[in-house]
Amino acid sequence: MTENRERVASHEIGSNGEFKRQKSEFTCQFGSGENESPIESGRYRLLVVDGCPWCHRTMIVMKMLGLDEHISIGKASSIQVDKKAGWPFSLDKNHEDPVLKIKHVTDIYLATDPNYDKRATVPVLVDLKTKKVINNDFYNLTKILERDFKPLHKQNALDLYPKELENQLDEMNKMIFDDINNGVYKTGFATSQAAYESNYDRLFMRLDWLEEHFSKNRYLMGDRFTDADIRLFVTLVRFDTAYYPVFRCNRNLIVQFSNIWNYCKELYNIPEIKETTNFYAFKSMYWTIDNNPYGIIPKGPDLSVWNEDYHR
């Protein structure tokens, strides 16, 4: 659910200067029941932006489960030249999505609802039969792919949201979202000093908790890699290049948390995670949010440290 500060709507800022993320408009359910969309290979197209953490975690899950063989992926640019038009398909020939034949992600939202007046967010699933948005539920989309789309998972795919851990995962994911995934945005998009400092403190309180947790646990759920680790990783991997300098989350860099940093390096070396991690896209997106009139993208930091040994 990527956003630019210039695109944050007035209803997303509370009276105390607190950023309140807009709710997802399209939350279609999937399955074989009444009013559910069917699980069919080739039926849907996922629109993403490489710089976006919500998209990144969805692409990791797609790759890990083999769903990229059944759901096509359309990539828009991580830089919005025209903020009103939204994410452009400038990476493709003729600057349009080759399947949907649209110039911007916004176009498919307006084709679905001509009166749609909120931010056209990614990731978003499009039904190729109707050529309309069917789901942009950024928070639940990975769980939907992990649970509802099981009939299309590749053989021996990891169970990233196991039934026996569902309650614990739901609780962990909510905490990680509130304090970290969305916490960096609540810090960076705050419009008052009080709101900024409150969310800054909450963010680093949770990072301190994670540093202690990873001194005793390999993953968030003990020794088992799950959906929760993917959700956490996509924020941590952007932290030092984007959230620390651009969103003023600047008490510590992630590389200064010994246990979190080694956890990050271990996850980064998972093939599906490394393949979908585009550092230049991160920098391009966040450093062109605002107040960068010449569009200069930082050359650093040195990314070779991500390939160093991790000691866990």
Automatic annotation (TrEMBL):
UniProt domain GST C-terminal: residue ranges: 162-289
Sites where the protein binds glutathione: 87, 119-122
Feature type site, description Lowers pKa of active site Cys: 243, 286
PROSITE patterns (alphabetical): GST_CTER (PS50405)
Coiled coil ranges: none
CDD domains given in the database record: GST_C_Omega_like
Catalytic machinery residues: 52, 185
Cross-referenced Gene3D superfamilies: 1.20.1050.10, Glutaredoxin
A Pfam family this chain is assigned to: GST_C_2
Single GO molecular function: glutathione transferase activity
GO-annotated cellular components: cytoplasm
InterPro entries: Glutathione-S-Trfase_C-like (IPR010987), Glutathione-S-Trfase_C_sf (IPR036282), Glutathione_S-Trfase (IPR040079), GST_Omega-like_C (IPR047047), GST_Omega/GSH (IPR016639), Thioredoxin-like_sf (IPR036249)
Name this protein carries in UniProt: Glutathione S-transferase C-terminal domain-containing protein
Originating species: Facklamia hominis
